Write the structure tokens for this entry.
Amino acid sequence: MSRFIRPAARAALRRWTETGAALMLTLAGLWWAFSGPGPVHWLGWVLAALGAGLTLGAVQRAQFTAAGLGSGLIEVIEGEVRYFGPRGGGVLALDLMVALSLSADAAYWLVEGKDGTVLVIPRAASGHEALFDAFAALPGFDMTRLLRMVAQGPAPRARLVWRHPDRRLLT
């Protein structure tokens, strides 16, 4: 059956599957809340609230996902972001991150380390989903700001998404 679906449509379905499942959970909870007897009524409200929270997170994850195929492999293991690509790569601990930027063409993450090294990671590389949780764990990180920048697309120059709160310039 999947060979009858275009690759672009299949990618879009895969991207929004988590959101669809969370919406179904929310709708099931609302149905139980309005039509369920006794304790099922209250369980429905709890399920609807849980589903709404999961839907919010799933929508953010779907917006974070980059379209297309990027080269390389991204792994986040024990607090380290690892990128292995055909033209280079590297490893950077999240604790040693100083800044995160989005490239001018919005196709790459620019991750700057404490020692000044910059790790250039394609947004669409294999395993890019792991970066969502890794970036969200950074101190003072604003996910809505990142999603807004990603939605804007290309810009004249690279845009700073996050800078470590303790490592700001004193100007």
